[in-house]
Amino acid sequence: MRRLLTVATFTSAVLFGASPAAQAQLKGHYIPGFTGLGNGSQGPPSINLMLPLYGYRTDTIKTDAGDSIAAPSITASFVGVGVVWVTNKKILGANWGGEVVPADFMKSRIESASLDVPGSFHFSDIIVTPLQLGWHKPRADYVASWGVVAPTGTYELGGSANGGLGMWSNDFQAGTTVHLDSKHAWTTSMLATYEIHSHKKESDIKAGDILTLEGGTGKTWFKKVEGTPLPQVTSFGPVYYAQFKVTGDSGTGPIASRLLAGAKDRVFGAGLEGNIFLPKAKLLIDLKVVGEFGARNRTQGITALLALAYEAKSLMKMPEHP
Fold first, then answer.
1. Residues contacting 184, CB < 8 A, separation 6+
2. By CB count within 10 A, which of 70, 204, 260, 305 is most buried?
3. Whose CA is closest to 153, among 128, 123, 109?
4. Three-state SS across the chain?
């Protein structure tokens, strides 16, 4: 059973600030760690409802030299509701799909030059992915997609209660899942996301392009369940991510000079992921925990994500019998 969990890959991200000794960098909408095992595979033709619950805890800021600066302990949280669909329509030999996150909320979004942010939820930016293509081959799967993030969330330049980032973003993704054995029990995958941004609302400040690489290697177990043709599917394995600023931030003014003075930021993460698909309930439960290391010009912490996916309607075509 190919993974249903795909909508969370485009949800809101954090704009990290720092003390004068640590130069902050502007962040994009894409949070690393929202995908992992099997993220180079598109799900089967279906319509799915998604509920991601995300948390990021940090009390450390890393300088350009890698030195740690103590900071107030803070937990940023995200919750959203999304719809993911995969159809039987073919484009370039691939199944066409898409997704939308019409409602999402961010709590304690870290922005500007302080970690002192309110602990309440604010409406955040929404994502629409009109084009997602998936190819399925005997020994590997491939995906490619394009998504847009609209600045619908609350935002004020330099504000401390922002739910959004005040800018448009275009996300381009490509990835693959390689089946390491003939039974598709062992897989390894990687998904690359390239994010391009507009200027921030009512300013000439612009975040640079961001590249995120994430994936994992895991084992899958299949178990027959009475009363349904679908098996129970369980997967477990190590996952990772790496996020880099590719081009520099730009802009003028006092806020820009404070935020953009540092070198390009980066961060790495490694952890574990486990998920289970319950065929009778048509429910996928996925949990991953990833610890960060090697950060520069940003916070370093730990990411946790619990995501639920419910198959509202299957669109798979049944074989015709004579």
1. 220
2. 305
3. 123
4. CCCCCCHHHHCCCCCCCCCCCCCCCCCCCCCCCCCCCCCCCCCCCEEEEEEEEEEEEEEEEECCCCCEEEEEEEEEEEEEEEEEEEEEEEECCEEEEEEEEEEEEEECCCCCCCCCCCCCEEECCEEEEEEEEEEECCCEEEEEEEEEEECCCCCCCCCCCCCCCCCCEEEEEEEEEEECCCCCCEEEEEEEEEEEECECCCCCCECCCEEEEEEEEEEEEEECCCCCCCCEEEEEEEEEEEEEECCCCECCCHHHHHHCCCCCCEEEEEEEEEEEEECCCCEEEEEEEEEEEEEECEEEEEEEEEEEEEEEEECCCCCCCC
In this prediction, residues 120-137 reach a mean pLDDT of 92
CA distance 29 to 197: 9
Residue 163 pLDDT: 79
- Report d(CA 203, CA 257) in Å as an integer: 13
Which contiguous run of DSSP H or E holds residue 259? helix 254-259
pLDDT digits (tens, 9 = 90+) for 56-110: 998 888 888 889 887 778 888 889 999 999 999 999 999 999 999 988 888 765 5
- The pair of structure tokens assigned to 284 is 């996928």
154-173 per-position pLDDT tens digit? 888 766 677 788 999 999 99
Whether residue 113 contacts residue 17, with contact meaning beta carbons closer than 8 Å, is answered with yes
Q: Is the pLDDT of residue 2 over 50?
A: no
**Greater confidence, 256 or 167?**
167
Output the pLDDT for position 118.
Answer: 55
By DSSP bridging, strand 46-62 and strand 68-91 are: antiparallel
